[in-house]
């Protein structure tokens, strides 16, 4: 059970990181990116190939993020001056192009060249060797710090929403609904954080390399989330939101809209590249088929479900998506007697139905703001 919870925590956190990059591009800037998986692919392959050459893991991961950002630079220069639909077409094509190139190209694995279709195996992951008792206790202390910061952040997030004292009925009901939704989300996230913390402590003390990977990933996710929250509340972030709503207004104010879009595309790509490194480390062996376009659309589900333009909502969307995935994998086979292929199709159909209901009931997502809704663009 502990190992399974650690596995779910790594999967959820890596795709929450991946989705934060997409949320920056789409939720805050309005850039339609249907090939987000391309950034993850480059980040994953750059990281593992450099690590096989003896490059330290930290430098390899940073190189993967830079490579993904450079892809964003190339795509941006080619498409950002054109209509938005051109960006959508180019990105989905780029994602498939990179996957097919990797599949058919020989890759420098160690001292030899190997066909990309055979994949890349036997590369190093963070904390793969058993650390000393002192280092394990330090790691448990870091995990405790992450848990405490998470609980305090959720508490402050709830307190920032207070029920309005206005006499206007509609405004008061809206305020109450927002407070109730935030309280419910905070409780769910706090329970999950507590379960992950307990599993992590057990996994770190009786050392499991995946627990060490989980700790590093959670630290990176917390750092990226913190910096993104500062950025999107800064003047830079407000310009991105203005571009999302109507880019003619910031243009009229003398802002270089193209440059801001390019920055958003590159930064979102770099975050996806880092997520690709953790995705590769979790798998332990990567193949081109690990980077199917479906992963991009799964990430769109996470962003839309939680609420585009909301970083906590994006993380919530990732949590809901993987909770749904885990529960249906375990429960549905006991309820419905279908073969594996049909069961998989049924699970996709159900989450599609959930999204349709959500779009009717709350089109801005669970935590999104209706006045910032970008789906109608």
In short:
This protein is mainly α and 377 residues long. The chain has helices spanning 2-28, 37-52, 57-79, 84-104, 133-159, 169-205, 209-233, 235-246, 248-252, 257-283, 294-306, 311-335, 340-361; strands at residues 106-109, 112-115, 120-121, 285-286. It is globular.
Determine the structural class based on helices, strands and strand pairing.
mainly alpha
Compute the number of strand runs: 4
- What is the radius of gyration computed over CA atoms, rounded to a whole number of angstroms? 21 Å
Using the alpha-carbon principal axes, give the shape.
Answer: globular
Q: Which fold name fills CATH's third level, the topology?
A: ABC transporter involved in vitamin B12 uptake, BtuC
Please give the count of helices: 13
- The number of distinct structural domains comes to 1
Per CATH, the class reads: Mainly Alpha
- Which CATH architecture? Orthogonal Bundle
Average pLDDT works out at 86
